[in-house]
Write a structure and sequence with these properties.
This protein has about 110 residues and is mostly beta strands. Helices cover about 0% and strands about 50% of the residues. A hairpin with a 4-residue loop joins strand 5 and strand 6.
């Protein structure tokens, strides 16, 4: 990981405002820190959430609460309960899609 133009920064997530994003179904709320080439987020997905797009962006994702399902374009689905996660590179040929039946809270670096 090559992080550039990001000086040492302490993030107080409790002082951040969430931004709401609608999915194909359900809603997500993002608390976002973005500087230089780095974006770090806490995302809460509502029960019944399904993303409205396939994402080719690379991520490091950790599930804090609930269960998040990650579907790959090839049809594989990975169920990620709390204390699990995934890492993926930027990949236009194999994007992923997030959904959650029960809701989830995740920490993402991308």
């Amino acid at each position: 990981m090559n992080i550039s133009q990001v000086p040492f920064t302490v993030t107080d997530w409790s002082q951040m405002e969430a931004t709401e994003y609608k999915g194909e179904s359900g809603t997500s709320f993002w608390w976002t820190f973005a500087r230089g080439n780095l974006r770090v987020r806490i995302v809460e997905y509502s029960p019944g959430f399904r993303s409205d797009h396939w994402c080719p962006r690379g991520h490091v994702l950790y599930v804090l609460e609930g269960t998040l399902d990650i579907e790959l374009k090839d049809g594989r689905i990975f169920e990620l309960p709390a204390a699990t996660g995934f890492q993926a590179e930027d990949d236009d040929t194999n994007p992923h899609l997030a959904s959650s039946v029960t809701g989830a809270k995740v920490f993402i670096v991308d």
